[in-house]
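How a chain folds remains the central question behind the approach discussed here. In the encoding step, the backbone of a single protein was reduced to a row of integers, each denoting a local shape. We regard such an encoding as a compact summary of how the chain folds. The sequence in question and its structure tokens are set out directly beneath this paragraph:

___
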Amino acid sequence: MKLARQTIKEAARRKVKMETVIKKNTFGEKLIWIRDKLEPDTKVLTGEMVQKLMEEYLGRFDEELEQIQLKHSVGQRKGRQHASREDVIQMTISREKEEYETCGIEIVDILNPIQLEMLRKWDGNLGLVQNFKITRYSRKYLENYKPPKNSRSAKLLEEIEGKPTVDPDKSLQQEMQS
């Protein structure tokens, strides 16, 4: 009886450990994909740029799905060839789109220039993922994103664009007080 309980506990530990490894690998693949898609000369990202990157990330399987559809249309078979791969892709796409539309996709805080530079220099070692600041980006958040007025991002954007970043609410309040 005691041996059976111990065996069950060990199996449960192995299962949890394996799930953690799979989750870490999936997250690492996401970060590598994002890192590889970043433009090397960009020092700071805007909300629009990150939104475009997220849209591209969500569409990363489009080409593979087109290839599968092409094979379906050309083949003489009645069954669905590559059905399991197609189903996995469809489930992944729907889950990630739902995440993006609701609570947000979890990635490195690439709106922070320091984190952006860390991601660029990252060698893909999953043990170093814990050094990143992880943030969830949703479509709504990115559409309404404005860098904090005194942040490093705002100062870099100001240098790049040549115009100060102004908080419209504060400037409106100042006009009303005058």
User: Anything to note?
Assistant: The CA atoms of residues 36 and 120 lie 8 Å apart. The first strand starts at residue 105 and ends at 108. Residues 2-37 form the longest helix (36 residues).
